[in-house]
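User: My notes are a mess, but here's the protein and flavin mononucleotide's SMILES. Can you give me a structure?
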Amino acid sequence: MNAAEKVCAFLEEAQVYYLATAEGDQPRVRPFGTALVYEGKLYIQTGKVKPVSKQLFENPKAEICAFHKGQWVRVSGKLLNDDRREVKAAMLDKYPSLKRMYDPDDGNTQVLYFADATAVFSSFGAPPETVTL
Ligand SMILES: Cc1cc2nc3c(=O)[nH]c(=O)nc-3n(C[C@H](O)[C@H](O)[C@H](O)COP(=O)(O)O)c2cc1C
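Assistant: No problem, the inputs look usable. Here's the predicted complex:
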């Protein structure tokens, strides 16, 4: 399992993670659930019309955090847009319920991948484990 797969597996188990972006000097955070490994990279999905997408366009620096069964992960890095149709389709195939709202060709569906990213797995009572994505 590479680092992206390890983080993705944890996010899948946790089901929900929290994505932080910056809007100027104001942090913004919201719940997210999508996570996919494609070509060894960790992708998330959103809609280009959302404020989160506009924030990442202005400033790709982002963090996500998830907590599950006494362990948490924090992923810090950049979230970069990938406009390839095949990645959007793979994401929607993984989350078929999203197909009610999104389509790879709708001009709104967006997938972004973590670049220059570090993930730290932490828990009380054990030393943190850092992996590079
Ligand atoms: C459990 C849960 C999972 C969610 N997963 C996603 C997701 O993967 N992608 C997404 O764009 N929105 C997702 N949402 C909705 C966003 O949290 C919501 O649209 C939020 O307002 C987006 O942030 P923004 O208003 O700053 O753009 C999820 C909401 C919940 C409650």
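The first strand starts at residue 17 and ends at 23.
User: Great, I'll file this with my notes.
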